[in-house]
Amino acid sequence: MEDTPLHTHRWSRRLRRALDAPEHWDVLDAPARPLAAAVEALPLGPYRDALHGVWLGHPLHPAMVQLPIGCWTSAALLDFLPGGRRSADALVAAGLLTAGPTALTGWVDWARLDPPRRRTGLVHALCNTTGVLLYGGSLLARCRRHRTHGRLLGLAGLTAVSVGCALGGHLAYRQAAGPDRAAAVPRLAPADWVGLGAVEDFPAGKPVRATAGELAVVVVREGTRCHVLAERCAHLSGPLSEGSLVEGCLRCPWHGSEFRLRDGEVVHGPATAPQPVLETRVLSGHLEVRLPGAG
């Protein structure tokens, strides 16, 4: 009994190493680059932002994943319950129907990732694709009344998809591919007014990096008005001070997310969370900022 904690620790460490491994497989970069370019070239227009989840405020893919996974998990249970055959078959088919849209939301997010996360995402997608093919075979076997074969293929598909889900969770939480990178800004932003410098030190129409206490910010001056946002992009921490101005928005230089200057709202993804904006005032020609609502 005393050896159990050590054994569990070793098993846990091996599992973590297995999940970490794909991000180091640089051999995956060769297929990943043209595949990402192909996804970026899809004529999705305004629907690309919808697939990213801009309207939802966080990535859409994790929410969509519940549809096929829920169908297939329920089908596996019904396969072994009396009278559950027809319902199980319907759920396998429903899972296949929802797998396509779910995968599309994942691919549009994946194409905007950096190489290490892209590698993990590609293995995640390969596992899920394998699962879809196995479930396709399962449905075909069921239609031909080969129920045992169909069940076995379904269980194999659920296993492949479960591995894909584990990698997806690792990508989202350990590698932080989806969380709001600017979520800590309210805790770092100064609660009281802090000076950033003379207004004339900030050239009009050019993003400039500054520091407000512990927080890096980007200052954009439009005429006599100054906008101050958190400097690191909410998507993957791109340096917004190196970005460009586009019709009242600040565009991230890394992946093209656009944030409205006046309130930080996302105009174009892949970012889904708004960029924090600080309250500003000018005293004696000097720009000061603080956390909004601190007064």
Commentary on this structure:
The protein is of the alpha+beta class and 295 residues long. The strands form three sheets. Strands 5-6-7-8 form a four-stranded antiparallel β-sheet, with no helix packed on it. Strand 3 and strand 4 form a beta hairpin. The longest helix has 29 residues. The termini are far apart. The model has no long low-confidence stretch (mean pLDDT 93).
Number of helices: 8
- Widest sheet, order of strands: 5-6-7-8
The chain-level mean pLDDT equals 93
Major beta sheet summary? 4 strands, antiparallel
Integer-rounded radius of gyration:
24 Å
The secondary structure category is alpha+beta
The count of β-strands is 10
Unreliable residue runs: none
Concise synopsis of the structure shown:
This protein is an alpha+beta fold. The chain is built from 8 helices and 10 strands.
Helix and strand arrangement:
Elements lengths: L3 H17 L8 H12 L6 H6 L8 H18 L6 H26 L4 H29 L3 H28 L10 H4 L5 E5 L9 E5 L2 E8 L2 E6 L13 E3 L2 E3 L6 E3 L5 E3 L10 E5 L2 E5 L5
Antiparallel strand pairs: 1-10, 2-3, 3-4, 5-6, 6-7, 7-8, 9-10
Helix pairs in contact: 4-5, 4-7, 5-6, 6-7
